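User: quick one
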Amino acid sequence: MNKKNISRRIFLKRASATGAALALPNFIPARLLGANAPSKRVNVGHIGVGGQGTGLLNGFLGCAQGQSVATCDPIKDRREAAAKRVEQRYAADRDRSTYKGCRTYNDFRELLRCDDIDAVVVATPDHWHVPAAIAAVRAGKDVYVEKPLGISMEHDKAMRETVHLHGAVFQYGTQQRSFSQHCGFVCELVRNGYLGDIKAVHVVAPNGARGGVAKPEPVAEGVDYDLWLGPAPVTPFCHDRCLGAGGTKGVYHIYDYAIGFIAGWGAHPLDIAHWGYPHIPVEYEGTGVIPTEGLFDTVVDWDVRGRYANGAEFTLKPGSDLTTFVGTKGWIAVGRGRQTLAAEPASLLDVKIKPGEIHLLQENNHYGDFLNCVLTRRTPASNIDSAVQSDFISHLGDICIRTGRKIKWDPKKETIVGDESAARMMRRSMRPPWTL
Amino acid sequence: MRTTSFFRTKLLPAIAACLVALACRVDAADPIHVLILSGQNNHNWKETTPKLKDILTASGRFTVDVTDHPEQCDAAAFARYDVLLSNWNAWGKVAVTNWPAATRTAYLDFVRGGKGLVVVHAGSSTFYDWPEYQQAGCASWKLGQTGHGKPHEFTVKATDTAHPITRGLEPFKTTDELWMRPGVQSTARVLATGDDQPIALVTEFGKGRGFTLMLGHNGAFMATPGFQTLLLRGTEWAATGNVTLAATTAPARPADSDTVLKELAAYRFGDNRQPVLNLEKLVAAASTDPAAKKELATKLAAMLASGATVEAKQAACWQLSIIGSAAEVPTLAKWVADKDLGYQARLALERIPGGESLAAMRAALASASGEARMGLINSLAARRDVKAVAGIARLLADADAATAGAAIEALGKIRGAEAVSALMSADGKVPATLKLKLSVALLQCAKALMAAGRAKDAAPILETLCRANQPPFIRIEAFPAWAGMLGEKGEEMILAALASGDRTKQTAAIRALRTTRSPALVMGAVERMKKLPADLQVQVIVLLSERGDTAALPVIADAVESEERSVREAALVAFGLVGNDAIVSFLAKQAEAATDDEKKIIVASLARLRGGGVEQAMIAELKQAAPAVQRELVRALVARNAKSALPALIEASRGKNDEVRKEAIAALGKLGDKTTCPALLVIVEHSQAAESALVVICRREATLEPVLAAFGTASAAKKTALLSVLGGVGGSQALEAVRGAMKTDAPSQRLAAVRALAEWSDAAPLDELVALATTTDDAKCKAFALRGVAKLAPLAKDRPPADVIKLISRAMAAGGGVGERRALLGALGNFHGAQALKAAEACLKDPDLAAEAKAAVQQIKAGGKAKTARSGGPAFSKDIVKLFDTLDNLARGGKATNLDSLSPDGQGQPPFAAIDGNPSSYWDEADQQKLYHIRVQLRERATVSTLRILGFGHHNYAPKDFEVICDGKVAKKVEGAEYKDNLLTLALPPTECSVVELKITGYYGRSPAIRELGIYGSAVKTK
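Assistant: Done. Structure below.
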């Protein structure tokens, strides 16, 4: 192809309507872009390598555009096991013959001082998400932050301000946006008006847990408990607080570190809800139970009912994860698993979104998407602005339950209105030396 | 006894019903499970159902579910509940007027069997023609007899003081819609009345109990303690026959805060947290009552100096953060440096709005030290207290680096002129470890100034931050704002930075381009793009595509020619976002010299192009492009769902180039409709692709008409193909057609029909395949029929397993070949129970069948579920299964062994799992070995031409470097196998052989697992 034949005129002749910046790239599987010995790799540090953090680590190890170079955790066994995993994986990879090894750190501040690290993955307990991520951005790193976002709504706002101020690339850990492409398809249907006007959004998320043994013990070997607690108040060390396993870990269900699965699991279907219908309810009321026995004290058995500004209904209940959009032209429900997809009329599922319509889907790998955005400075699939909104919904649900009152939200001023006591619950303080 | 009534009337608070839970909770009892029937009612169920649920839940005695579709419920749906509560009726013109028999039976059986029924208000008014329903409901609105006035206040009193529900119930006033003269069943008993009208009734129904409460016209009327007591006790009685919940009819009184605080005072970590929860509820209730709030806050503040436990004081402090006011600030300030209460006291000061809390924190800051001081710095910063700047600024020079650092960060948050001035003065004076913090704080100040429209004030800060001695990322972040302020000079700076050869400057310049409003600057900049390192060129291309300006197209076109792959790829992606119909030709032509990855991007970009005329341009290009380009254009047209391209695609399906033809035919399948079928029918006997396309169309359009119409006049070869199409489509109509076609003298047609049946997508033809297998003499027919039985038997889920096992056994005895019998054993593994076990064990003695029989026995013992996905096992699409579990796969029915003397590992199985047609089971051996060697004896000698591998996961435990060996000779060497969605397809040089081996030396993951191995070609004997 002789490129001399191409002149500006040919391209400019038939200018089509462009105008608005298209922040959405094509759906190119992440493994394609920069897949084989890319010109530049993103060096990644992993802050928090417990259960979820290790899962993310494995995911990132599968991405050719990235290179994991450091792990950090106040629990010694975890950071060392993670580093070992990294080194084993790269040892078998011919492409990484120059790999120098994976460093371990107890204190994330040391990791952030490393000039060779471009980006960090934050998979700490919830109360650490925003403080660690903000510190990372202020050290010049891009961040992948696990959900839910912040332990308080003030934390959410601070994260957003920091990301925008520094122009950092931020990916929220709501991986369904990439890995569960049928969710994006549903949201595209909603955004492009195939359901008509939305009358209701119903969200279901797995219930929180009761339990945990509140038995004070000496701090376990290899655990830097003070660092683990970080900004949270000091309480006696218990095994179930820090070292529990699976879905009934203290970190998910203790109010000092999290507001519970109403956010911890709720983040996923709420994120899909917001992706399809980018609004936030302005009224919340609901009931729930705060367990009194055992260590865990976050809300369970919640039943939140809300209302959007245009009168549309919102509900949030416990159960198998599902987001249902109900519109004037039909309804559609979707959860993480493809088999949950259901619609009325069923023909909605056969719709093919046209080139000129709104497209939401980016890449099919959430980690690869983040790394590519670090390299290209694009906005990742799950950005900070929507993360803040969906996290707000969890918090407002929790607040309306704990206060027992109807809570009103002003989306412009971003504050609870007409209830000064409830508005105070939007913030928490932090144990020094930690700050936002 | 006196204390008893004191306890009852004074110490049983009735706030928010939840405190009823405190007093009345039966510790050891399991909660009672309630199902509310809702979703339709001539009253406002949307309001009343949630209220009913709240009341029940808050008591702590019940768990409550709601169904909005009782008419869809059956016995199973009701089974887990102890009591049904009906807030549902079918009064008036409604959607659901009847319950199906299953629901009716379930409803009555539920109660008769010993469980409970509660009916609230109008929940009773329905199904007047169903006597048992009325009977269980105690009373209902009787037309012509019952009436009501406007809702008014009346007194409810117990008439039956012995019944557990009303025992000890004191009279209470309530407002509601009172039903006069409802129809009361003779089997019902009135427990309480209002104005002499029945209010609460009970009945026995079979072994169960019914309770009906006539109150509850709307949500507001349900708020009285009296209503709630009757509801709670009535529901508990209906479920259990007993009542443990207390009766309280007194109106809600202000909580007895003294008791709550007294109980809280002894709370220790590890105790049940009810005292803390009670305090939280107390506070929540007091929050809206200024007097109660003030009183409670005072008491909480007083608690801090009392003898209460530390944990209690912490809880009190935490609650003060919610209801405390300026009045409590002095007390809280005293505790701010306390080891145990400091966190909570500071939380309260941070949360209590107003100047007093700020002043207190500032004062405390002056005398605090260490961590307490740092906490105060942080809290004042969190409040953005401008008055605190002076005090914090003094700490910038503190000897303790952590404190100085906290001070720097705080000023960066508070911002404003004073803070800026303090930070700028500190520049150059802070220790090296704090330089970065200072720069960040200054950047925050500068950006805040810019946002406030005070660029002039921000300028000196930004200039400082752009200096060479600043950390690179600070310079990168500050530069765009700095250059942006300087107008033309700034634009020159940006261009100079791009050309500077200094990576930090270049990165900073690109950031500036992202936010500039000057398109001319952007175009000027991109002309210098080639001098940038590849990864920065990619950033520029991406920002061009985000801006969407078509003027950038020539630059993007240039970039497509780059030697750097990443730049090329970025340019190809950008075309899709910026381009229009004018670039279709250029973009498509790139496919000629493109790599496979680039081709995929080209297709995606062509699919993505917006604006008019794109499809026409693609169609025009398709007609005259080179074959490599045509193929990608076809794919892009499919991605665009471009039905307008069908005529052009039909033309392309007749072209000379094999690959283009196949692609076009597949496209016809994906986009076409009935009118497309004639073109496909013409070529169907020569083209497997056309067969598939017809299947796709027929399925989508839900019609067989084109195929059936063509059948009559078709040649033998075409008939064979059409039968295969019918088999692919499936369904009863196709089945009839295939059965009809079987009644023929033409052996090839019969065979094709049998084959179609054998590959059916459900178990409909199962019986006739068994019959065929046992009666036919034709060996080929028998083979196909038996394999069909093996394939379809596991799908026969709606038939009694015993019948299906019998069929399999009959098939096994039909005298088929070893391959067929092995396949049947595989099918047997899907079942469980003695019968299946016996059939499998019978084959253990046969050396040819021993391995498969053993596996089948294992699976049968494991419940016959082994073939379904294990935990973490993905569900496999029909397409994937079809690829391998087909007679086209010469490995199916063959024999697989390993030559590496390794054992199966983890969930992996011996080699036969790779050829059992079931992707859920996989061959996998010990990790990290140097060599893995699997050997497959084909079902029959064949000329093999294609190999497919389905790994364990995509590039995760799958063969990567291996040799394909046919009858001892290496046919193909593979290095760095690239899978597509975990599927590897390899073309082999056509080689005649009976045995195919894979010698694997490299793998993804820790071992080369194979879920399915497919070997395709043509059998050596003629078809």
